[in-house]
Specification:
By secondary structure, this protein is of the alpha+beta class. The protein contains 20 helices and 25 strands.
């Protein structure tokens, strides 16, 4: 008789998605178990030891505004903070922080261990336990998950399960011709969950990702490298953090050379990506060095960033040279980099292939369509990046807890959050390569700035129970401070024009306002920045809100769960197949499905209104 453990929510995998999912479920009061094959790798940074960046920073701040873990952890353990894209407008700014990799992992584990209602358990999930559901019909789940079986004769039961398995499903690591089972260097792989999903009718595909080599810092000639310091006034990620107090460390920049490119070209016959040994696609946004040399053959060099992995280690991450070339080629390649002539490799780069489930099999809550109460988050959905994983994790974990308690759902739309853009892109359009967030994916990015994420999302989180009372009180105090500042700006004039109107001019800034109205000197930097941005872009934001409202009136119309597209006369077979597979919940989502034309959407509208043929909905 297997040992049995009962919970409300189970989260499988303790990476960045799993941590946010488990903590979100627990914050909502669900008795939650976070299962991982190794309790010592909770929140581990498998690749780049950094958080944030352009597009990604918005996700981190939104996760924090919803009560998440990532922002607090990086603020506590970051070793260098920089805002990218400062020369562009605020919607394009991308705060980024290098982490002390081990400290970050330790801090995340500490938060997990201190979260009420959450148990961290070292277990390897082998099989999903499901029960058959009665009833048939378009879009209806045929099974419901009720738990998992783990290695070593144990069973966990729950009302909802979240899969956040990362790159560990039937994973294979490649370094040159050498292939080793495993989803991360020094760790193994698992096949049981993939088999369970396939048996339940899920489509499963393969992606690949890669990582560069790491160097012994004491063997690097830093005098030949360009220093890259952090910002003088480092900007926190968490709305709970008042200031970054710890000392910052320096990063360095160097470049590849024509000799390196020649070496790579001479060894493409040994590169798994070019021999057919790796057949799956990797992220275009983060190509291997061998891919860059082939794709950009006219380029004589590519920039490399040398980033410390922590304060108490000399290990250096070489950002920009991800590779799966053989060991001897990596050794020779590094020795040809200026400043690295005597550098020694501590860890070789490699590529990893792994199973993922195409995310068009999910609902906007990240619950699967074939199996009720089974949620997916992170790289199992075909994404790449810690930030994308964390964003999905908080959505999946919250919805798992809400489903277990029968309390509704958390769905963020594209107008409200980058998280909403991410989830909608995944479940509506699917993926043909590992998905990464860019600011260009967000139509309303001017209003979805990283600095106002708390104003957009914390009230919503508070209504669900995701946000702590202290977070809500902090937001209320900031909003009061901002309102007071706006009053001062409207009341004071310079040259006959109010400071509020002057602030709309690009040559007039907050410092000029303080010179006229000294009372503004006491306004916090965070409140001042948001007031300035709100005033400066008020006209653009008003137009954006009008456009959103026009689109929303049509887009928000709900398509019933059991809607039968097969009964809509004249609907193209391709459109019928796509809509039946995606099962969009609204007309807006239906319009974003790949291959759906305005004419197709018009037929769906007519059917919903009971005109133009049979109604698609069934009793």
């Amino acid at each position: 008789m297997p040992s049995r453990y009962d919970y409300d929510v189970l989260v499988i995998g303790a990476g960045h998605a799993g941590v946010e999912a488990a903590c979100a479920a627990a914050r909502l009061g669900a008795r939650t178990a976070l299962l991982t094959s190794n309790c010592d790798t909770v929140g581990q940074m498998s690749c780049n030891p950094a958080i944030g960046g352009v597009g990604k920073a918005q996700l981190v701040r939104e996760v924090d505004a919803l009560g998440g873990v990532m922002g607090r952890a990086i603020d506590a353990t970051g070793i260098q903070f920089r805002v990218l894209n400062r020369s562009k407008g605020p919607a394009m700014h991308g705060p980024r922080a290098q982490a002390d990799k081990r400290l970050y992992q330790t801090e995340v584990k500490r938060i997990v261990e201190r979260t009420p209602h959450l148990d961290l358990r070292q277990e390897t999930a082998e099989e999903l336990i499901v029960e058959r559901l009665d009833g048939e019909g378009p879009g209806r789940a045929r099974h419901r998950v009720i738990g998992v079986r783990v290695r070593g004769d144990g069973e966990y039961t729950a009302a909802a399960v979240v899969l956040t398995t990362g790159t560990f499903l039937q994973a294979v690591m490649h370094t040159g011709e050498t292939q080793v089972p495993g989803g991360r260097a020094g760790e193994g792989t698992t096949a049981g969950v993939s088999r369970s999903l396939a048996a339940l009718g899920f489509r499963i595909d393969r992606f690949k990702t890669g990582t560069p080599c790491r160097l012994a810092g004491g063997t690097i000639d830093y005098a030949r490298l360009e220093e890259q310091p952090g910002d003088l006034a480092p900007q926190p990620f968490s709305f709970f953090t008042d200031a970054i107090e710890q000392e910052q460390m320096v990063c360095w920049i160097t470049r590849t050379t024509p000799a390196i490119h020649d070496l790579i070209r001479a060894n493409l016959h040994r590169a798994p990506m070019f021999t057919g040994q790796i057949g799956s696609r990797g992220p275009r946004s983060c190509p291997s060095i061998e891919d860059k040399v082939v794709r950009f053959a006219d380029r004589e060099s590519h920039q490399l960033f040398l980033e410390p992995e922590g304060r108490r280690t000399s290990e250096i991450y070489v950002n920009g040279i991800s590779t799966s070339l053989p060991r001897d080629v990596q050794d020779e390649m590094i020795r040809l980099v200026p400043g690295l002539e005597r550098a020694r490799i501590m860890r070789y780069g490699y590529a990893v292939e792994y199973d993922y489930c195409p995310p068009d099999q999910l609902r906007p809550t990240l619950e699967s369509k074939p199996v009720a109460r089974l949620f997916f988050a992170g790289q199992i959905n075909g994404t790449t990046g810690y930030e994308e994983a964390a964003a999905q994790g908080i959505v999946a974990g919250a919805n798992a807890a809400l489903a277990a308690a029968g309390r509704g759902e958390l769905v963020l739309d594209r107008e409200t959050a980058y998280v909403g853009v991410l989830v909608d892109d995944l479940v509506t359009r699917g993926v043909d390569e590992p998905y990464r967030m860019f600011t260009s994916r967000a139509e309303h990015r001017l209003s979805l700035r990283h600095d106002n994420a708390d104003r957009r999302l914390t009230p919503l989180a508070a209504g669900l129970g995701l946000a702590e009372p202290e977070r809500v009180a902090r937001l209320a105090a900031k909003q009061a401070e901002m309102e007071s500042a706006r009053t001062v700006l409207a009341a004071h004039r310079s040259g006959g024009t109010s400071l509020a109107d002057l602030l709309r001019r690009p040559e007039f800034g907050w410092t000029d306002c303080v010179a006229v109205a000294p009372a503004l000197a006491g306004v916090s930097r965070e409140a001042a920045v948001q007031v300035e941005h709100d005033i400066r872009y008020a006209g653009y934001l008003a137009l954006d809100r009008e456009r959103i409202e026009r689109q929303r009136r049509m887009a928000e119309r709900i398509i019933p769960d059991g809607f039968d597209y097969a009964r809509i006369r004249h609907l193209r077979a391709e459109a019928r197949e796509q809509l039946d597979r995606i099962r969009p919940r609204t007309l807006g989502q239906a319009g974003r499905v790949s291959g759906i034309t305005p004419a197709d959407l018009a037929l769906v509208v007519l059917s919903l209104e009971g005109r133009g043929g049979d109604r698609g909905d069934r009793a």
